[in-house]
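Researcher: Last one for today. Full complex below.
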Amino acid sequence: MTTLEATAIDQVRIDRIRNAVRGADDFDALVLASPVNTWYAAQVVIQTQEALPERLALLVWPRDGDPVYVVCNLEELQARAEAWIPDIRTYFEFKESPMQIVADVLRERGLTSARLGIETNFLTSAYADELRSLLPDAIYVRCQSFMAQLRSVKTEFELSLLANAASATDRAIRRTFESVRVGQTERAIAVRLQTALLEEGADTVSFVVLAAGRNSVQTHPVPGGYRVQSGDVLRTDFGGNFTGGYHSDIARTMVIGKASAEQERAYHALWDVHQQLIVLFRPGTRVCDIYERARALNLAAGLSFNRPHVGHSLGIELHEPPMITPYSTETLEPNMVFAIEPNHLVPGVEKYHLEDLVLVTTDGPRILSNATAWRDLLVRG
Amino acid sequence: MTTLEATAIDQVRIDRIRNAVRGADDFDALVLASPVNTWYAAQVVIQTQEALPERLALLVWPRDGDPVYVVCNLEELQARAEAWIPDIRTYFEFKESPMQIVADVLRERGLTSARLGIETNFLTSAYADELRSLLPDAIYVRCQSFMAQLRSVKTEFELSLLANAASATDRAIRRTFESVRVGQTERAIAVRLQTALLEEGADTVSFVVLAAGRNSVQTHPVPGGYRVQSGDVLRTDFGGNFTGGYHSDIARTMVIGKASAEQERAYHALWDVHQQLIVLFRPGTRVCDIYERARALNLAAGLSFNRPHVGHSLGIELHEPPMITPYSTETLEPNMVFAIEPNHLVPGVEKYHLEDLVLVTTDGPRILSNATAWRDLLVRG
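Model: Here's the assembly. Have a good evening.
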């Protein structure tokens, strides 16, 4: 998104946030600072919010009024070009603290003794203490669950971005896996994978897990100099950042050269588990029941199970609530999306992993990531 | 770094941290949680510490004893394969909090009423409050300046990683800029730039600023669909993550097709400022004096000046202290490294930016990033 391109605005999202803020019981104003929530609300992706986390961009959203966007002066041109919010304030880094500007805005709005919703899971202890000392009469309450609940049900605009990101990522993996040959290094394969994702439209790559053979047993190995051999499992867990900051997150497993009967069996057993989990993504299912079902299915199929979660929602955040854990008592609603990711570890030998993006609709689950093309174990090289 | 590759350990770094911790006056144990400081101290790059910031990996380092490394159970195999620290504890995510394990370790070491050094500029308000409630008798002090000061003087091991990262990034930009042609989109050029960096050895791309013509006036624009035209300035500010988590950060400016006399003049004026700043990187120079000199030189040359900083140290952190601001009273020492980055904005028209990596040595500044190849304005297309 640059000054020369039209930037589409998701008006449904703006209205939904405004209504939720107006109806909130436990705060008088939101003070958002995380990339996830400020990108979501202001609809501007400021790169440095991730690269330089202390250079905050903040959104102050009073219950009875319009939001104010606070950015570092270096980011002012981008903010003015892209944000739908007209009231933008800046701070001059090192000379001024972003919290001073936030406190000024809150004083201006008569909110010095108000209840302020802050992200206690993002705001650093230092910034939180600074805000408390600037506005000692305010009451500070955590707002991350409020925001996460809002974000968990996607707008049509968001769904189109997420579906595009998921299918682009699936295509990038497919192209790369089809061209794998014995003797290539994990590193070289990972370079091609990342290039393919950028060519498919990602703004940046957000993470790359790619490992073969025995390396694949680690959860998040960095691709290295190992040369893939016939009979190796090759596993990737991979995603990018796309327009609007929306993530993809897809896992695939193939075998190099020639697959053993045991590898075929393990892959198809995991594939069957995956299918049986996908059908659960219907309105009304409790999230924790998907976790318990995943455990039961893996164990019944003779597959390993030792994971704290078997998937998660995603959007601008890579792992968004609800996480698919034993403790997630939320109930699925239409327009929620989930990455469902069963896996199977053969200790010390290899690991299998599948991950697809599933949309909850009133008509049942809709897969957004071309899963069916991976029914058969891919063998190349 | 994977299980199948030898992982070199920087013993000088370990000894330096150990000595500094032993000699510390204001804490009895460090509790580190940021990617920067845990990667630095444990010498393990756990990808998910950045992708999933709530999944903490922590290092507890008592003044009188050996450190303990606390990781999510999903990352245990990597931690055991790569860390030089034998005492590794794990937590099972969602069921246990990492802070519970940290509190257990501190109890075990008899440090429940000790002074604990925490990173108040990283640890979230929620995690800090949890630790305080688990160990209410401890005294909490900020340790980020202690760690930043340690990290600011690089070991030979670190310098070789940083020099490699800088020259790889310079080569990637050179290759990409040489092949730019009129009519290519910023986006397509940025894809080639990122691919080139991965081919030159980066593990991942950490950020990509690339913009042409009028788009270049923003500080951190995302490359978009604009097609570069003859007479456009093309500007990049770009870096990757390399082995050990070490960053690169290089900025370059070229002109597409044909440069005007005014563009030639502006580029060479900025180049001259750059050279005059680089010679200041000698032991004994005060950091803030470099900032003031940059302001004076830019203004004397008829160039704009409106920046909160003109550079920064870097290492595992992209912007490490000392930042080159008016408020940085530190004095340069041998084996400090800095990205020095003068720029010049023609409002509403275009922006020029140069950034090189300079090592402070007793013999004077040593440029680690091939700056001399950019003395003449590059014109291609």
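Confidence is low (pLDDT under 50) at residues 1-6 of chain B. Chain B touches chain A through 71 residues (CB under 8 Å).
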